[in-house]
Design a protein that fits this description.
Number of strands: 11
Radius of gyration: 13 Å
Largest sheet: 7 strands, mixed
Helix content: under 10%
Structural class: mainly beta
Order of helices and strands: EEEEEEEEEEE
């Protein structure tokens, strides 16, 4: 498994931007697909976005297309989530996750492909 530590969450107003970071250690980062998920109070954890091991491919949930962007720096073992035009419905705990590569990027919407998870970082968007 890989150890994941998220940072960058906070309280912002609607329309603002935030960038989350996830630092990885313990496994070859450049071989891992990385994903972001989120969980709002009383709701199931849902897929947000994933990025391939090389960074060439991404897959977004419809709810964040055009607003959120994922990127990675394999030299720094870090994945980022740039969140723009935030809405109150984006309020959730955001989790970073890692999965072995091997499937098409669209398959990584599925939580069960991920074997390592961070502790989460809270994002709160006020109206």
């Amino acid at each position: 498994q890989v150890q994941l530590v998220e940072s960058g969450g906070g309280l912002v107003q609607a329309g603002a931007s935030l960038r989350l970071s996830c630092a990885a250690s313990g496994r070859t980062f450049s071989r891992l697909v990385m994903g972001w998920f989120r969980q709002a109070p009383g709701k199931e954890r849902e897929f947000v976005v994933a990025i391939s091991a090389s960074g060439s491919y991404t897959h977004h949930a419809d709810s964040v297309k055009g607003r959120f962007a994922i990127s990675r720096d394999n030299a720094k073992n870090t994945v980022y989530l740039q969140m723009n035009s935030l809405k109150p419905e984006d309020t959730a705990v955001y989790y970073c996750a890692a999965a072995p590569a091997g499937y098409s990027i669209g398959a990584y919407r599925a939580r069960n492909l991920y074997d390592s998870w961070g502790q989460g970082t809270q994002v709160t968007v006020s109206s």
